[in-house]
Target: DNA-binding MarR family transcriptional regulator
Amino acid sequence: MASPRRKRSDTEPSSTGTAKLHLTRFLPYRVSVLSNVVSHTVAKLYDKRFGITIPEWRIIAVLGSGETLSAGEIAQRTAMDKVQVSRAISRMLDSALILRESGDTDRRKALLTLTPKALEIYAEIVPLALAYEAQLTSALTEEEATQLDRLLIKLQAQADQLAATPNTP
Amino acid sequence: MASPRRKRSDTEPSSTGTAKLHLTRFLPYRVSVLSNVVSHTVAKLYDKRFGITIPEWRIIAVLGSGETLSAGEIAQRTAMDKVQVSRAISRMLDSALILRESGDTDRRKALLTLTPKALEIYAEIVPLALAYEAQLTSALTEEEATQLDRLLIKLQAQADQLAATPNTP
DNA sequence: TGAAGCTAGTTTCAACTGAAACTGTTGCAA
DNA sequence: TTGCAACAGTTTCAGTTGAAACTAGCTTCA
Model:
């Protein structure tokens, strides 16, 4: 493998002082494009066969083990905001995918459980989802898959931290 | 490093026939969450200081070198659809960030160029964008960054192919 | 107690989105 | 030529989104 003397960076300070940027090498752009294609493909999978959206699928995914959670807990685990969760839940109530009963100790918290119908969907979707994931990673070696796992964890941690930082003054 | 005997997969065929899935280990979900955080952070960067959206920024990015492109070419290079591009352009015309003149040879194609004002924004944003990218990858070693690059390319290629495949019959 | 301030979840509003329909332009073929 | 399919870009429509305001229930502490 030829190894370039120095990693060719996007930065090109150039005598004029104007740095250049190639979108196709810009990490945020690349991640966004990848995410779009993947989400779109996966959404088609869910929607076509079961008529559910990604937020609904995520809720089914976290409740799929039979657990009972509040809307807030679902929001945390699915990385969605509470508005999104609220709306997905109301759709799922309409389509009888979820049961809601208010808690005894705290009546603000609604306890949410999947209906048998939703559990069936879960049981059907999971293999499809995993099959897609397997196909996606089939282009990688076992070692690369492990690397990917580690890199994603690191990037996510760093992205979270940078997002939390108010603003580089 | 302890190496697990076998990669612990999400699949859990289990005697009942119901596979399980942990959202937090599901690649499409992970990529989506990462993309959201990153995009959100970056959008704040653009929006706060320059009042532009991500589509507008992308257009500025591809035209930033001074090139003249048609809307269709912009759509291709930015991975946005033509509707998104059309709308971004009309906003940019309003805010005097872009110039449009119809081509001589084909009057359907509008030739688009950035105004000096937009070029200034470009010159200001690029360092900020690159700084963010640098911070994001600062958690990685040089080698890891190279791996990431390779993995993203592979994943994108595979995702594109799977998206193109009509439907696994 | 009970006023003030949390927290959980919902609603509202204005902006954004994608798919499909549409307008105008070009190229090709009869 | 004219007629028609293909193409570039725009508009429409119906739905989705996120931020902020709001309602309702809980907690604290004077």
Observations:
- Residues 53, 81, 83-84, 87, 106-109 of chain B lie near DNA strand C (CB under 10 Å from a C1').
- The mean pLDDT of chain B is 86.
